[in-house]
Design goal:
Layout (H helix, E strand, L loop, with lengths): L1 H15 L7 E3 L2 E3 L3 E20 L5 E8 L7 E5 L5 E25 L5 E13 L5 E2 L1 E4 L1 E4 L4 E3 L2 E4 L2
Parallel strand pairs: 3-12
Antiparallel strand pairs: 1-2, 3-6, 3-7, 4-6, 5-6, 7-8, 7-10, 9-12, 10-11
């Protein structure tokens, strides 16, 4: 009984903190939605990265954000309270370097025949040592539910 109460308390606390938990069952099994990476290109000593993504809330629902390969030592925070919008912050005091996924975003598909752009609307990157703003250029991604294909959004840093 005590474990049940502790478990319920944790779920209530997560709900109050705005942490989204989801799962769907199909034939008794867990059904995973698509996972789309956000790629950071030509990173050199990136200490912090904040981004706001927009997508079609009639097609997709963001459910979770995890650190990608470039952010494996970083702290990742996110807010997915607003449908169709996702705010992500990544902090790595040692600096991120290279090209690869900085985060991966898990989605739940709401329209099995729909498509959605995944647009990087606001991006700010800062150098880990100097904290100076780093110039960035973004290219949008997309997701097509009918065949599960996607194009990853890319954040490019100037050389």
């Amino acid at each position: 009984m005590k474990r049940l109460l502790v478990g319920l308390g944790i779920l209530i606390l997560l709900g109050l903190l705005g942490v989204g938990i989801w799962w769907t069952t199909l034939g008794g099994g867990l059904q995973q939605g698509p996972t789309v990476p956000v790629v950071l290109s030509r990173a050199k000593n990136v200490g912090s990265l904040q981004m706001e993504l927009a997508y079609d809330p009639a097609v997709l629902e963001a459910t979770e954000v995890k650190a990608g390969e470039l952010a494996k030592n970083a702290m990742v925070e996110y807010n997915l309270a607003a449908p169709g919008r996702l705010v992500v912050g990544v902090i790595d005091s040692s600096g991120m370097n290279g090209t690869g996924p900085v985060v991966t975003i898990s989605f739940k598909v709401l329209d099995k025949r729909g498509t959605s752009a995944i647009i990087l609307e606001t991006i700010q990157a800062n150098d880990a040592t100097t904290l100076i703003d780093m110039p960035v250029k973004a290219s949008a991604g997309s997701y097509a539910a009918r065949d599960g294909s996607f194009t990853a959004p890319v954040i490019g840093l100037s050389p």
